[in-house]
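QA checklist item 7 of 12: single-chain prediction sanity check.
[x] sequence parsed
[x] length recorded as 449
[x] structure emitted
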Amino acid sequence: MNPAATPNPPDPGGASHQPHIMTSGERAEYERLRRHAAIRHRRVRRAGSSVLLLLALLLAPLAVVAAWVQDTVSDTDRYVETVAPLASEPPVQEVVINRLTDRVVANVDVKAVTDSLTKTLQDAGAPPRVVAGAESLEGPLRNAVRTVVDRTVTRVITSDAFQQVWEGANRRSHAAVVNMLTGDRDGAVRAEGDSVQLDIGAIVEEVRERLVDAGFDKAAAIPDTDRTVTLFQTEELGQAQDTMRLLDILGTWLPVLTVVLAALAVWADPAHRVMLMITATGVGVMMVVLLVVLAVVRRVYLDSVPPTALPTDAAAAIYDTFVRFLRDSTRTLLVVSVITALIAYLYGPGRPARAVRKAAVRGTTAAGQGLRRSGARTGAAGRWLADHRAWITGGVIAAGALALVLWNHPTIGAVALILGIALAVLIVVAVLAGAADPSAGHEDRAAAP
């Protein structure tokens, strides 16, 4: 008996294995449920992306300030680079010159000199007019002493030696910044009550030695106390110290957290490009807000410093010098945000974006065709570049972003340099791709086994 001819046993399940054919009503309900689930899924993703974006934007200014504080406190070279220009600021030099001159002149007892001269003349039997003239020498002699002392102090303060002493003292006492933030009383910069004071003891030593060498023996009596210049004076110093302490602790991880939140916001949103453009724009707006806050804080600081404690121009020079790197970082991030938003827009479907892309393609294609007509053909390499244009573009953008991240304290100039190099590479790749023979790729594929 042929087994192949054996009839199949009857299916006990009957029609249970037959596929179910949906009716038109069932298919309509199915499509409606699918659309509803897709819409709900997109809404959940957008809501989560919006929350992440809000957190990233709120943390962005704090991250910039925290990174600046942590960098200035932990890096000795960066700290010295921050405070070094103060020694060459004319308003600050004027304050130091006046303070030191007043203290030196105060320690020169001019009245004792005139009294001694008067007594000597009286003992020698000098005429009364001569004795009276000696008594009136106190004012001119004091002015002469002040003129000589002021000239000597000015020569020291405006010399390169003062700059070297200033930088050396700050480098050796870099822990002074930490002392100011933590409220410790040791170091060159320290907190005293509601004011932050700068100890200029090393500078006083230099001036005192110069004056003694110049013949002013009385300068050796300059006291070792009261050698401070008030830099900041505010009732909110304690709160500022607590804030700075927190920013110092978060200085390393807060920027990383902000970048991660922004990246997750872009990834979670269904429209990645649009969310990237929104994120970049939001970060740029927050950087503008930070610049405005710095300007407001500057005005508040200048108003809080009494002119008797520190002249306004000197206080402005001190504030601008201390926060200049923070301003530079904020402006750099603002430029990066604008460039990122512009790139995201140029990849979109807008009419200006399409026009720019078409113009770029037309220009690079024309340049490539010109090279091909002149005999400079790129062959298979050009075809490979043309076939992988999207991957190459993404790689160049990623390399530029990585270079910017790894750049030590990037500036606007560094951003412009990296952007220029990236654009140049993309243009060269597009031109080389346009110089390839269009038929080369087909011939290669036909010759392949």
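[x] summary fact logged: Residues 24-74 form the longest helix (51 residues).
[ ] second reviewer sign-off
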